[in-house]
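Hello,

I think I submitted the flavin mononucleotide job twice by accident. Can you confirm which output corresponds to this input? Input:
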Amino acid sequence: MNMNIYFAPLEGITGYVFRNEYNRLFSGVDKFYTPFIATKHTGKYSTKDLRDILPANNQNITIVPQLLSNNASDFNYLADKIADMGYTEINLNLGCPSPTVTTKKKGAGFLEYPDELDRMLDEIFKNASYHISVKTRIGVSDPTEFRKLLSIYNRYPISELIIHPRLLESMYNGKPNLDWYSYAYNNSLNNVCYNSDIKNVGDCDKITAMFNNTTSVMIGRGILTDPLLPERIKGDVSKEVSKRDAELEKIRKYHNGVYEAYVDYMSGDKNVLFKMKEIWKYLIENPVFNKDSADNFIEKNLKAIYKCNTVREYNEVVDAIFINAL
Ligand SMILES: Cc1cc2nc3c(=O)[nH]c(=O)nc-3n(C[C@H](O)[C@H](O)[C@H](O)COP(=O)(O)O)c2cc1C
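Support: Only one job matched these inputs. Its output is below.
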């Protein structure tokens, strides 16, 4: 299928250490959107603030830096700096539902102030010498808010309007609202990209069948569960890997690669285990592990992984999961 697949930004998970390892082993992802960087009033950014997007940390990989901001001059300052590094697209986060962000009128919290958002967009588009894409939810507490939001987005040459069709209030619960995505698809003057709950090829086919001019989709958690998903959607999974044991071996290689990359990058077992536990939260849902369709398989194994306090315990639990899946 000739369609672009974007890896969604997942803060705490898809940083450059993970991203490079994933990209080394799998194909199918056209662009990786980075977890957000919050803009600052001071304009003082350390190497640490920016290390996730430094070109040296993202060789042979296409990334789109994402900014979290509600202030045009702060956005312009950092976006210009990022463009100087060679990036041609910058993404604005209007979707984050976390209270630490929304209470500061940022992420999806900024959707409650459409007039201010409009003014900010006006100033950032006037300044920009690069493409600006926007990742948005459909509103705060009522999907009809999206009428006004879309009329604002339509005033600007947004390179792609990536829509996670849930309300801020819904967080990640319930089903994505396809009626309002359909509204966006039919009324947006800019290209739209669908995001949320694509977990398998069938979910993706459903979206492309409903919205047949779809040229891109963004997937996050679905790839963490099935790292081969982008290759499957594009029909690129090699015959070798399509066999169960080869698939398991590839996932093992991926797991070990990410694990070792974190061991090299972080100090202390606790930090490495924290990162790996986040990955298992999604990976354990891959049906390849539950050979006998056992009841409570996910809960049981996640519990065992979460309980691990040392690398030795962790390796034992993980070995058992892979061996039992064979
Ligand atoms: C742990 C986690 C971290 C996330 N971090 C970000 C982020 O930094 N920026 C952003 O725009 N969205 C973020 N999101 C939202 C995802 O990018 C995506 O929109 C959402 O998970 C729905 O897509 P999916 O069902 O394909 O995962 C995050 C989601 C999760 C679960």
